[in-house]
Structures are given as C-alpha cells and as structure tokens.
Amino acid sequence: MIEFFTSSDAIFALLTLTFLEIILGIDNIVFISIAANKLPEHQRKKATNIGLLLAMVQRVVLLFFVSFLIGLSKPFYVVDTDWLHLEISWQAIILFSGGLFLLYKSTSEIREKVETPLHDENQVKGKKIHSLKQAIIQILLIDFIFSIDSILTAVGMTNGLSGNHNYNLILMIIAVVISIGIMIGFANKIRDFIEEHPSIQLLALAFLILIGFMLITEAAHLSHTEFFGNSVGAIPKGYLYFAIAFSLFIEFLSFKVSKKPKK
What we know:
mainly alpha; membrane; transmembrane helix; 263 residues; transmembrane
C-alpha cells in the first residue's frame, strides 16, 4: 500500500487530479456564491462552507458507488461475429458511458463559454431562495450536476493505476478532500484568478476531451474488443500526463510573456 501511494504514477495522478478538480470546480464556486448571496449577509459564509462540506460528502458517496460498478469486471454478455468480438461487462459500460458523457459535457461547455458565457449563471440567479435550508439544498443540487464530470474525471485518471480498486478509491477520495478544502479556503482568490485567465478553464475542459476519449478506449480494451481481428489497446496514462504538463508549461510561459511590460 505504501509503495503504491509513494510511487511516481500515484503522486503525479494525485497532483493532476487535484488540479483538475479545482479548475472544474470553478463553475461550482460561482453558482454556490450566487445562491449564498441571496441570503442575509451573516448567513452567506455559513451557507457556502456547509454547502461545500456536504458537497464533499456527496462526492465521496458517489465515488464509492461508481467504484463498486467499476469493480464489476466479469462479462455478462459476449458478442462474437466474423468482424467483431466484444465481452460486455458493467465496468466497460460505465467507462464507455462516462467517456461519452465527458466528450459531450466538455464540448458543450466550451461552446457555451465562448458563445453564451453567462447562460447558466442567469438561470441560477432567477431561482428564489428564502432560507438557509433552501440555499444549502440548491447548492447540493448544483454540486450533484458538477459532481458527475468530476467523478468521471477521477475514474479516468486513476483507473488502471493499481490492481487494487480500494487503492484507486482512496486516491480519488484524497484528491476530492484536498480540492474541496482548497476551494473552501481560497474560493474567491481562485475565482479571481480564473476570471483574469479564462484560458485555464478552457484548457481543463480540453483535458476532459482527452480523458473522455481515454475512458472509451479503456472500455474497449477491458472488453477485449476486436475489429476484424485487430484488438483495441489501452492508451498509456503517461501520454495524458505529458500532454497536461506540456500544456500547463506553455500556459505558464504565456503568463510570463503577457506580464512583461511592452516597450
């Protein structure tokens, strides 16, 4: 167990996943702030903190549920034709469905942020809130929607790291707890940073496209899929880590260049 959590793959996966969880949680922070700001001033901070803590518990519970389904790797139906071989399991179905969802969510989010960036915020602003209880319920509902892509991202980043599903689950829970803790402590500063550098959030959504595609290929690989005798292989996660690290490095250089005073 110690060897796994101190391995370079596990550490890099934890750092990358925590970063993505924070960036993907920016919209969540914005919507939670909108909901909390409808309350009297003395209740706003309380509603935000309680909402985020309950959101963390909600995500951990969902992680247990998804991890249980991922563990169901035994095929329950086999397709075997002249040109296609496929061993369908619940694990493959969850990974494949999650990959499709991430592709749809990331592309639609990118389109909305480019064309109608305030569409979702206006919808949340239109809902009336009269008490702390109503605010917390609305925060939980908002977080549930954003938890889906967050959890699927966690599954995509950790699936296959260890043969023991419990280790992967613990790694995902640690990342969720750290990211929520950082969001509670630095919510406003993180939101201001993203407002100044919106390319970071678009970059995170682009990473979701990569993770979604990786989940689809992983599902095909675990199903022992073969097209015309050619099997589908899994994409090494090192490629994904390199793409993320390289993109962040380029973005960092862009920040440095933009901060230099023009002559």
